[in-house]
């Protein structure tokens, strides 16, 4: 693996340490690019129209907009769960429509995904949940344990490693999910409403964690309704409305913030 | 190489885990498999018995021509009878002709009585009532008509022609229908097995759809998602087959008695039948388990 990751010494992580505040342009080579993307679902529902979006290496971008605006569709396109009806989705220089189906799993290992409902396996411990991502992708046993320990250390769950998810708080469960997303050492983390099920204080903890991971050089795209967080952080905000990008700038949740 | 070993270990381990974690479902699947395999084996055995029975009867097929008693020549072979036997033997469709004298016929009759444990009263007869006869065996049992005709034409020598063949033909028709019907039933039962197993395994798959979803999201290849379920299905099939064979082994004594009692003979070699049944049960169990898993998981992968 040649990708810069959080699991290496911080100095080697990123050639441009000030990327996090770099803002709108995404000066470095884009990790993700949507070019004129449209999406119409087979049932005729039109989800996206002519969306352009580029995420630079190491950016932290909020994706906001009302329900049904197309946020989930954008995320699904990025993990190639859906293909665009028109336009191109380019991940790491590759047009996803041209990636053959059997190569899709490899592609997904480069992306960490975090959901509102955590999607943890309740009968497996925190450690097993994180290790699961490596086991099912054929990682040699000897490499699993250290990688899991590192990921758990990053999210601060070393002490809870042997507990089952249902015995944990919501914040701890989400941190487990983030550790699982990190364990493949991804360049991009996609978070779909990661704080949607959490109270404000815990939400902030999660955001702080994502920011720290971003500082380690991982690009983060976070879809959210959490206006407080978005407005306070003043990062790049991409707003969708009825399937179109209506705003793309550094700022708050609303245009006037 | 190591990657492949790791993959197999992973799949087998997870398949076994799946069996244990869904204990009740596993039990349901194995019981279904057991019942269906027993049904299948039962059908198979009855089929084999019928087939062997028909074959046995076909082998024994012959035409019997009872001869007139010839006054003064009792028990000895008459010239006419010899001539007739030679004529019949000359026909290409005849395999052999045997002369059964009156004494021999009586001896056979007494032997049959003795075998059945009935009282032999023939000693009280003042003369032997049984006719001498010619027993004709055929090369092809179906071509009996010309020989029967020939025998009936010699009415001075031949008293009556007993057409065993006619009886056999009726029997063959009946068993033929049974055989075809049995095969159709066998196929139907096979489909029912597959259907039920697919559904049972599908329940197991649905119970773990979250796990499958997570696997897809973290980038597990299709093989890693599919094969644990295939192994699980294979284990269900093998366990079901083992249970079915155990039941059959326990029941084999009574089954053998029944078959002997019903078909009068033991079909072919009993050893080869046993081997066939083991192969049938294990093969079907394994095949249906694997195919069922394959079909059940498929819908979760095609995206």
Characterize the structure shown.
- The complex is a heterodimer of chains A (257) and B (303).
- Chain A is an alpha/beta fold.
- Chain A folds into two domains: 28-110 and 186-252, Rossmann fold (3-Layer(aba) Sandwich); 121-185, no CATH class.
- Helices cover 29% and strands 25% of the residues of chain A.
- Chain A is built from seven helices and ten strands.
- In chain A, the strands form two sheets. A six-stranded mixed sheet of chain A has the order 6-7-8-3-9-10, with helices on both faces. Chain A has a four-stranded antiparallel sheet with strand order 2-1-4-5, covered by helices on one side.
- In chain A, 44% of the residues are buried.
- The model of chain A is unreliable at 1-6 and 8-26 (pLDDT under 50).
- Chain B is α+β, with helices and mostly antiparallel strands and 303 residues long.
- Chain B folds into two domains: 8-57 and 170-301, no CATH class; 62-140, Alpha-Beta Plaits (2-Layer Sandwich).
- Chain B is 73% helix and 8% strand.
- Chain B has nine helices and four strands.
- A four-stranded antiparallel sheet of chain B has the order 2-3-1-4.
- In chain B, helix 2 (23-60) packs parallel to helix 8 (222-263).
- The longest helix of chain B is centred in the middle third of the chain and has 44 residues, at 164-207.
- Chain B starts with a helix and ends with a helix.
- The mean pLDDT of chain B is 79.
- Chain A binds chain B through residues 79, 81, 102, 105-110, 113, 119, 121, 123, 132-133, 135-138, 140-141, 180, 184, and chain B through 2-3, 6-7, 10, 21, 210-211, 213-222, 224-225, 303.
